[in-house]
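Example with several molecule types.
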Amino acid sequence: MKEEFVPYELALRLKNIGFNEDCFFAYREDSPGKINLYNATTGPEGYCNSEGADIAAPLYQQAFDWLREEHGIWVTFEYDDCDCVEADICWYVGKCFRYGIGPLFLTNELGDFKTYKEAQDACLEKLIEIVKNEKL
Amino acid sequence: MEEQFVPYELALSLKELGFNEKCLKSYNKITYKLSHLNGPILKAPLWQQAIKFLIPMIDGNSTYRIIMVKKNGNYMLQERKDEFNFVNYSDGSNSDCIEKLIEIVKNEKL
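Resulting structure tokens for the full complex:
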């Protein structure tokens, strides 16, 4: 199930920009440099967040939802198997105010993403960068 | 957190199509509620798992594409009308998108 969760590096960056939603799994540094993904659904709460030392591990769908709801950044993935596009998966990122007015800017990546994971990670990285730049 | 999972009926249809991935939660087949209990259970896929499972099952030459709706991040199934234009084929809810995809996959299998 590991592939359903945002990888550690990106989860950490999400925490740094304020992500603190309830998650089913979390990353924990069990020994120096050794990060493990552990299941928080078996605990009393059934989920965890990033308030403690652990880093909450969001599902990709949670991360994208949070960025949209908290920062008004929308993303659309296109899964298209037609020969007319350069990539199987591409994404577009934009910024809108309260959904509808906008976009302020639009990034169109037609990279050669052949897997969902590749496309999702690259997209998420871009979104985090956008939020970070806004905070500067 | 329940909203992260496809509803019971769709989980059942996905199982019928062969979905058998590891899942975070299951549905109790008696109460239809998400649970960890032992007994008669049905795997409860996440929305992202359902999409990943269904997309490769659609014929590569088909005229459909899936996008994410700008205002709410839901999946939307669209059908190609001509070289540049697509029309919406689902109503903008995740459930309808998955339902339509299942329908297409089932028809392609006939």
